[in-house]
Specification:
It contains 10 helices and 14 strands.
């Protein structure tokens, strides 16, 4: 089977490429390398392409003739999306529409979409199930929600079959240490904590300590990136077997607080780095935890790495010996 992967040089994407490559899929990665790293693409042909380039995109789809497309290419920084929404709507929404239109022109009708729990906005209930109202509170979440609406319309009009995967908090790294998280700028909690442990940051800040949680800090559902990669493989098999279009939450169904993550990182690294308390950030819900009942029931998914200490250990191994 041939799989086209957009944005395949990024963090989650490179772990998906690695897994599918090990399973024998023929993979073509396209990435403009504005955020990704060519060194992260372990199984590939890699072509440097921007999804705004419709002519090149059509040529690639016509020549490669993929059985399915996995679409990751997107900007992901919530704060940046607030101050520069044009960038997010152009890339995350308009360029996705370019890709979908080109797929329809070339007869490709299986699509896996990298979505986000940010489409839910401030949750009305915990854990969050897929039927929770869609109400994003920032342009990043809205850019993804807009694509999900487009996908529904394309399914009805053009028989496009898709799976939309709503990520909670991807974390950790390849246990073999070949790939891992490498964002610039880095905004995710665990790598920021580990940079503080390495001495690359003076401290780690806790934004808010009076949330209605047991220790007063925010709780998030952290999923190891390899378990998330496995979900993509199962979603692909589901579509190749004729599965109907659907949406799935990607999380473990339970969470850890910021203080729990910090304490676990100190245990794993053996380093007592500096921690500072700061004011809450606007738009940070107290708790974000997935209801993964649908994911487990439909795909038979059984996570292998559901352990915070293991997640941080793999991330620390990568951060200590990173290659890019």
């Amino acid at each position: 089977m041939k799989i086209l992967i957009t944005g395949g040089a990024g963090y989650i994407e490179s772990h998906v490429v690695k897994l599918l490559g090990e399973k024998g899929f023929e993979i073509l990665v396209i990435d403009n390398l504005s955020k990704g790293h060519k060194e992260a693409v372990l199984y590939r042909t890699l072509e440097k392409v921007d999804l705004s380039d419709k002519i090149t995109l059509k040529r690639i789809l016509e020549e490669f003739k993929p059985d399915a497309v996995m679409h990751f290419a997107a900007f992901i920084e919530v704060g940046e999306s607030v101050v520069n929404p044009i960038k997010y709507y152009e890339n995350n929404t308009c360029n996705t529409l370019n890709l979908l239109k080109t797929m329809m022109e070339t007869g490709i009708k299986r699509f896996i979409f990298s979505s986000t729990a940010a489409v839910y906005g401030d949750p009305q209930k915990i854990p969050i199930s897929e039927d929770h109202p869609i109400s994003p509170i920032n342009p990043y979440g809205q850019s993804k929600a807009s694509v999900e609406k487009i996908l529904k319309d394309f399914d009805k009009a053009y028989d496009l079959k898709y799976v939309s995967l709503r990520y909670f908090n991807a974390a950790g790294a390849d246990p073999e240490g070949r790939i891992g998280e490498s964002h610039d700028p880095e905004t995710h909690l665990i790598p920021l904590i580990l940079k503080a442990a390495k001495g690359e940051r003076e401290s780690i800040k806790i934004f808010g300590t009076d949330y209605p949680t047991l220790d007063g800090t925010c709780i998030r559902d952290y999923i190891h990136v390899n378990d998330l990669a496995e979900v993509h493989y199962l979603a692909l098999e589901y579509l190749l077997d004729g599965g109907k279009s659907s949406v799935f939450n990607c999380g473990y169904g339970h969470g850890y607080s910021v203080k729990e993550v910090i304490d676990t990182a100190k245990k794993v690294t053996g380093i007592d780095f500096k921690v500072e308390e700061a004011d809450k950030r606007p738009g940070d819900p107290p708790i974000l935890v997935a209801d993964n009942t649908k994911l487990k029931g439909t795909f038979g998914w059984k996570p292998k790495f559901d352990d915070l200490e293991y997640i941080i250990q793999t991330a620390w191994n990568w951060e200590s010996n990173r290659r890019f």
